[in-house]
Amino acid sequence: MQRCDWVNSDPLYINYHDHEWGIPLYDDQKLFEMLNLEGAQAGLSWYTILKKRENYRQAFDGFDPSKVIHYDERKIAELLLNPGIIRNKRKIQAVIDNAHAYHRVVEEFGSFRTYIWGFVDDKPIMNHFSSSEDVPSSTALSLRMSKDLKKRGFKFVGPTICYAYMQAIGMVNDHLTTCFCYPSSTC
């Protein structure tokens, strides 16, 4: 069975590729989680973050924005001592800032899903790349998303992070044409 060439032999990574990456995700809390995990990836590999995902979920109360919004300096200090996550104060603070921004977006749009999927008019973009070298690291759309997220107070949401986020949540399906998951949005 042929997969995208970025997948290694770790069953965790294979499962992520086969059952999550590129598959449309619409649950608000999971969309919030993925946005923050993609931000945590900045300067690192997704594989590093994926291996720590369960630790992140425990450390950040399941990425429940209603809980994260109440984190204070004591909680930040606790998180900075947690070896199961990336202990970067700016990235930890970003999750808290993002929870505040998330609540403002939900207040304005009714749901985070409505806001984020509005960038693609609720229709996943299906790309047709045969080589990972052809897959862009950012696009005009991810740049527009990044600017809008930043304007709303989100952190660690540059255009490259936004494009990786779009791929992860299925707004963009970049499974290679040689991958068994192409062209469907489910493997």
From TrEMBL:
<keyword id="KW-0479">Metal-binding</keyword>
<dbReference type="GO" id="GO:0046872">
    <property type="term" value="F:metal ion binding"/>
</dbReference>
<dbReference type="InterPro" id="IPR011257">
    <property type="entry name" value="DNA_glycosylase"/>
</dbReference>
<keyword id="KW-0862">Zinc</keyword>
<protein>
    <recommendedName>
        <fullName>DNA-3-methyladenine glycosylase I</fullName>
        <ecNumber>3.2.2.20</ecNumber>
    </recommendedName>
</protein>
<dbReference type="InterPro" id="IPR005019">
    <property type="entry name" value="Adenine_glyco"/>
</dbReference>
<keyword id="KW-0378">Hydrolase</keyword>
<dbReference type="Pfam" id="PF03352">
    <property type="entry name" value="Adenine_glyco"/>
</dbReference>
<feature type="binding site">
    <location>
        <position position="17"/>
    </location>
    <ligand>
        <name>Zn(2+)</name>
    </ligand>
</feature>
<feature type="binding site">
    <location>
        <position position="179"/>
    </location>
    <ligand>
        <name>Zn(2+)</name>
    </ligand>
</feature>
<feature type="binding site">
    <location>
        <position position="4"/>
    </location>
    <ligand>
        <name>Zn(2+)</name>
    </ligand>
</feature>
<dbReference type="GO" id="GO:0008725">
    <property type="term" value="F:DNA-3-methyladenine glycosylase activity"/>
</dbReference>
<dbReference type="InterPro" id="IPR004597">
    <property type="entry name" value="Tag"/>
</dbReference>
<feature type="binding site">
    <location>
        <position position="175"/>
    </location>
    <ligand>
        <name>Zn(2+)</name>
    </ligand>
</feature>
<comment type="function">
    <text>Hydrolysis of the deoxyribose N-glycosidic bond to excise 3-methyladenine from the damaged DNA polymer formed by alkylation lesions.</text>
</comment>
<dbReference type="GO" id="GO:0006284">
    <property type="term" value="P:base-excision repair"/>
</dbReference>
<dbReference type="InterPro" id="IPR052891">
    <property type="entry name" value="DNA-3mA_glycosylase"/>
</dbReference>
<keyword id="KW-0234">DNA repair</keyword>
<keyword id="KW-0227">DNA damage</keyword>
